[in-house]
């Protein structure tokens, strides 16, 4: 079976890849493009560790075929920092120790960034519902939620 | 497996009709899970998102036509849908996580044919219709006529749903959907109930549609529920009668998510509560 040629944008960079019809976007990112920041937790859309945005919309990259990325704009955790400059969410997660093993962290950061772009002043309840599809088995979520709330407050003060 | 992304309905129908074991891909939140679990091994997946109109929400005859690939998130951001059919928007919004909402669709929720699909009772209550396209052209079908049994629909080979049509919201009409789950988020309905009703000048119900999900092999329209409400104010004894007929209409099974007795009871409770919310909305208030 011939491979599918896909032209897309990933973190603002024009990108081309070949994939099989069965390959998910997550398979492509990790195994074909070497972008291993997005994690595979469940592979069935339950855990959110593979979260990316496609045309600005938060999705699970395990629930999308690589071939569907043709002509879309994909952003991943690799596009979050600017050079050595961490995104404020990344910095806050370190300062507040909002992670332990770290497997869920890329997905949570991508999801939290997507929330703050849409809603710069979320309530705790809104943060918890927004991140309900990002499972973390280490932290009990409290530090994650507080880190997101504090980052939102910092960004509001800075703007 | 082959992947095709045609840019016309005709090309999609030709592909689907020509290949046994072809599946439609819109949001993919059910299809990709089944591919991974090897529950399905399609020869062909036809992505319909490159077809004009599939991602559009369009005003039509006072109602709304929703393309088959419109996601729950897109519906939740649409002021017109939120104003006219908040119950349908809430129902689709209950499906999965934020990430799943970014892709999941009404048509996919219907075609997955789970008896517990959240958006389906809400669409039935709203009297939504579907535009189904296929080798013999296009036909419009009521939502209630599509689910056949768990995992099965009445769509013929080569057919797919192109759009969902929500009719014009009646004046002094309101709708609501409620489900019971044992947690707060990310779960499958133990019971779901959709209600749509219209109030007359005296505050009595002049028309109603009551539907139940997850209490039978497919969604059900509870005619006796509408009869319990029509001609009466939606409160007190009318709601008790409604609850009783909905509990009686439910034909659930015992499983790990709920017992028969519990589900029958909850069917009545949700019907009563959803009716109260729909009535508030019918008065033009927010609920």
UniProtKB/TrEMBL annotation, chain A:
The 2Fe-2S ferredoxin-type domain, residue ranges: 4-80
Catalytic activity, EC: 1.2.7.4
UniProt-listed CDD domains: fer2
Pfam families per the UniProt record, alphabetical: Fer2, Fer2_2
Keyword tags: 2Fe-2S, Iron, Iron-sulfur, Metal-binding, Oxidoreductase
Molecular-function GO term, any one: anaerobic carbon-monoxide dehydrogenase activity
Enzyme class of the recorded protein, top EC level: oxidoreductase
UniProt cross-references to PANTHER family, sorted A to Z: OXIDOREDUCTASE WITH IRON-SULFUR SUBUNIT
Record protein name field: Carbon monoxide dehydrogenase small chain
Gene from which the chain derives: coxS_1
UniProtKB/TrEMBL annotation, chain B:
The protein's Enzyme Commission number: 1.2.7.4
Keyword Cell wall biogenesis/degradation assigned: no
Transmembrane segments: none
Superkingdom, taxonomy of origin: Bacteria
PROSITE patterns recorded: FAD_PCMH
Listed InterPro entries: CO_DH_flav_C, CO_DH_flav_C_dom_sf, Diverse_Substr_Oxidored, FAD-bd_PCMH, FAD-bd_PCMH-like_sf, FAD-bd_PCMH_sub1, FAD-bd_PCMH_sub2, Mopterin_DH_FAD-bd
Keyword terms of this UniProt record: FAD, Flavoprotein, Oxidoreductase
Pfam families to which the protein is assigned, alphabetical: CO_deh_flav_C, FAD_binding_5
Ranges for domain FAD-binding PCMH-type: 1-171
GO MF assignments: anaerobic carbon-monoxide dehydrogenase activity; FAD binding
PANTHER family associated with the record: XANTHINE DEHYDROGENASE SUBUNIT C-RELATED (PTHR42659)
Official protein name in the record: Carbon monoxide dehydrogenase medium chain
Species of origin: Roseovarius gaetbuli
Higher taxonomy: Bacteria, Pseudomonadati, Pseudomonadota, Alphaproteobacteria, Rhodobacterales
Gene transcribed to yield this protein: coxM_1
């Amino acid at each position: 079976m011939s491979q599918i040629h896909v032209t897309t944008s990933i973190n603002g960079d024009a990108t081309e890849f070949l994939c099989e019809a069965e390959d998910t976007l997550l398979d492509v990112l990790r195994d074909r493009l070497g972008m291993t920041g997005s994690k595979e937790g469940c592979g069935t859309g339950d855990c959110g560790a593979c979260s990316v945005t496609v045309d600005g919309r938060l999705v699970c990259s395990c629930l999308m075929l690589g071939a569907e990325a043709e002509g879309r704009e994909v952003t991943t955790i690799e596009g979050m920092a600017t050079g050595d400059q961490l995104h404020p969410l990344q910095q806050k997660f370190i300062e507040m120790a909002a992670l332990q093993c770290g497997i869920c962290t890329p997905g949570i950061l991508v999801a939290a960034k997507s929330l703050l772009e849409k809603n710069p002043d979320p309530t705790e309840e809104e943060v918890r519902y927004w991140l309900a599809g990002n499972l973390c088995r280490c932290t009990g979520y409290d530090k994650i939620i507080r880190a997101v709330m504090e980052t939102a407050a910092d960004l509001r003060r800075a703007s | 497996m082959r992947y095709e992304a045609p840019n016309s309905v005709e090309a999609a129908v030709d592909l689907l009709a020509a290949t046994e074991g072809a599946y439609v891909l819109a949001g993919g939140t059910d299809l990709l899970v089944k591919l991974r679990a090897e529950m399905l091994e399609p020869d062909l997946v036809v992505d319909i998102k490159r077809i004009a109109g599939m991602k559009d929400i369009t005003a039509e005859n006072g109602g709304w036509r929703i393309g088959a690939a419109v996601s729950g998130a897109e519906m939740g951001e649409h002021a017109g849908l939120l104003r006219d059919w908040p119950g349908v928007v809430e129902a689709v919004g209950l499906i999965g996580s934020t990430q799943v909402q970014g892709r999941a669709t009404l048509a996919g929720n219907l075609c997955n044919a789970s008896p517990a699909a959240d958006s389906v009772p809400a669409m039935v209550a709203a009297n939504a219709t579907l535009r189904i396209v296929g080798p013999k052209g296009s036909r419009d079908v009521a939502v209630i006529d599509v689910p056949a049994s768990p995992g099965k629909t009445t769509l013929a080979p080569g057919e797919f749903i192109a759009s969902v049509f929500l009719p014009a919201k009646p004046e002094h009409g309101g709708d609501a959907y409620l489900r019971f789950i044992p947690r707060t988020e990310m779960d499958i309905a133990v019971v779901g109930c959709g209600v749509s009703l219209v109030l007359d000048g005296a505050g009595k119900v002049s028309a109603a549609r009551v539907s139940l999900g997850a209490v039978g092999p497919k969604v059900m329209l509870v005619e006796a529920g509408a009869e319990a409400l029509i001609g009466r104010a939606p409160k007190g004894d009318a709601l008790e009668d409604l609850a009783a007929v909905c509990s009686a209409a439910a034909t659930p099974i015992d499983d790990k998510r709920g017992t028969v007795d519990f589900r029958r009871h909850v069917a009545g409770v949700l019907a009563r509560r959803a009716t109260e919310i729909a009535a508030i909305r019918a008065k033009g208030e927010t609920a």
